[in-house]
Amino acid sequence: MEFRVLGPVGAWRGDVEVALDGAKQRTVLAALLLAEGRTVPDTRLCELLWGERPPATFAAQLYNYVSRLRKYLGAGVDIVRQWSGYQIRIGTARLDLDDFERLAEAGRESLHGGRHAEAAERLHAAMSLWRGPALSNVTERLAATESHRMAELRMAVLESRIEADLLLGRHVRLVPEITQLVAEHPLHEGLRGQLMTALVRCDRQADALATYHEGRRALADELGVDPGPLLTEAYRAILAGPSAPAPAVVAEPSWHGVRPAMLPPGVGDFAGRDEELGRLIRALTAAPAARQSVAVITGMAGVGKSTLALHAAHLSRATFPDGQLYADLGGARGNAVEPYDVLGWFLRSLGHAESTIPKGLDERVRLYRSQLAGRRLLVMLDGTADYAQVAPLLPGDPGCQVVVTSRLRMPELTGATSIEVGTLNREQALALLGRIIGADRVAEEADAADRIVELCGRLSLGVRVTGSRLLARPHWSLGYLADRLADERYRLDELRLGSMDVRERLDSSYHQLADLGQLALRRLALLRAPAFPSWCTAEVLGVSRHAGEEVGENLVDARLLEIVESDGGRRQRFRFHDLVRVFAREKADQADRMLVAGAGALSGVGS
């Protein structure tokens, strides 16, 4: 069996293509293959297939796509269910992308070792695996997510292949090919430098100089910048004549002078959080010698950690003249991104061509930290899953500042400035609602506005969703929406609009729990008490008090339970945020309900 993604996505058994049903099924297959053995969450597959508005039957449809894939691919390939997602295990089958990367790496090693003919053979073999634009028959969402990265991989190997051919004296036949490539990619300095080299070796110095000037004009018109130092050096070498031959290959510009600006836009309706915002801005703008180099913003799902961090980052940009790096690490969606991939994004943003980025994680970390040395740069790591994901992304230079957002407290980041973000107070929640729909509209129905923010549990995301829904439906009164929210059975349905989805955020926290944690959450939510003692966890699980306390603490760490009373840890009382309780009750099954109802020890809880 062979899988192909370097062109139209497909599966082949020998010389016969396996019949697949259409773009959506091919999208599922491609997403699983590109995950390289990692689990792809249902939420991610749903987004790739249907975007922000999936059908009500999306879970059944996704199951059908996977079921038919299993049937078509046969026993040699396993698609296994892992938590809330799927993982593909291809066994002895081949993936053309793996073959491409293996041949490309071998070709680069031969090139660096001076074995030019061997390098050219391997790099030509790698390029021959491409059958057109990658992922050309999948949904637009997957193509938009992955095609640019794969095109960059192809371009990096193509440059290495051209370099090997130039070193073998094949410049005459290269000129038409590189001329076409430069026409297609006029701002690509590496290709333009290689064309200049080939033209000079064909004794076409005038054409080589014209190629440089065309590139200089294109860079100035499109980007407002001058050619990079190595392209300029190649130009000067041509002017100097044969005594100073042009270099065989012109590399991409170095990182010097590159100022990444990766921050997403902030929100225009930021409200409240004056204390937390002040603390964070003071931490970011303090003199390097007086500040902690890491700030950690923590809190439950949907509480507004990212909004606060981005607002402060934009307000503090002038403090970081060398730019800002940003990565959504996927922890908030239960789809954690590997540090290896994030380092690749960062190094490319710092001016590195794909061919210059190391293949090993440790080498990427060393290069990344070397590039940041001596610079004042802001690094924002949003939606962090755990410390292991953050550690390789921390700069070594104290002049750089890191902002981490996470549901976890990250005690491993010793000395960090820690900012806890709680739910909004009543005034802040009403102010946020007013910023979205207008203060006059809130004042006209003040009682209904109060009900809305309380039914949202004063959770920032919940208030934003309700405000956006009222903005989209100006014919709705606030009282009408408050009545819709009042029914717990449908409350989380009401708190969803596009990519803003309270249930989805809570679901990602839930699925990161161990089995006992999920069980405890569902059963504790069925207790008819606003708060309950910690021993209830052991009771609903049927485990020892010690084991139950550990599960309870894990739920607190995951921000799915809150501590309302504690005598130093020996005796504690917990409570749920209202929306977490609603969510957990949705998850509870009949067995959970029967156990809690029949547990005599729980009958007096809360009394």
From TrEMBL:
<protein>
    <submittedName>
        <fullName>DNA-binding transcriptional activator of the SARP family</fullName>
    </submittedName>
</protein>
<dbReference type="InterPro" id="IPR051677">
    <property type="entry name" value="AfsR-DnrI-RedD_regulator"/>
</dbReference>
<dbReference type="InterPro" id="IPR016032">
    <property type="entry name" value="Sig_transdc_resp-reg_C-effctor"/>
</dbReference>
<comment type="similarity">
    <text>Belongs to the AfsR/DnrI/RedD regulatory family.</text>
</comment>
<dbReference type="Pfam" id="PF13191">
    <property type="entry name" value="AAA_16"/>
</dbReference>
<dbReference type="InterPro" id="IPR027417">
    <property type="entry name" value="P-loop_NTPase"/>
</dbReference>
<dbReference type="GO" id="GO:0006355">
    <property type="term" value="P:regulation of DNA-templated transcription"/>
</dbReference>
<feature type="DNA-binding region" description="OmpR/PhoB-type">
    <location>
        <begin position="1"/>
        <end position="90"/>
    </location>
</feature>
<keyword id="KW-0804">Transcription</keyword>
<keyword id="KW-0805">Transcription regulation</keyword>
<keyword id="KW-0238">DNA-binding</keyword>
<dbReference type="InterPro" id="IPR005158">
    <property type="entry name" value="BTAD"/>
</dbReference>
<dbReference type="GO" id="GO:0003677">
    <property type="term" value="F:DNA binding"/>
</dbReference>
<dbReference type="GO" id="GO:0000160">
    <property type="term" value="P:phosphorelay signal transduction system"/>
</dbReference>
<dbReference type="InterPro" id="IPR001867">
    <property type="entry name" value="OmpR/PhoB-type_DNA-bd"/>
</dbReference>
<dbReference type="Pfam" id="PF03704">
    <property type="entry name" value="BTAD"/>
</dbReference>
<feature type="domain" description="OmpR/PhoB-type">
    <location>
        <begin position="1"/>
        <end position="90"/>
    </location>
</feature>
<dbReference type="InterPro" id="IPR036388">
    <property type="entry name" value="WH-like_DNA-bd_sf"/>
</dbReference>
<dbReference type="InterPro" id="IPR041664">
    <property type="entry name" value="AAA_16"/>
</dbReference>
<dbReference type="InterPro" id="IPR011990">
    <property type="entry name" value="TPR-like_helical_dom_sf"/>
</dbReference>
<dbReference type="GO" id="GO:0043531">
    <property type="term" value="F:ADP binding"/>
</dbReference>
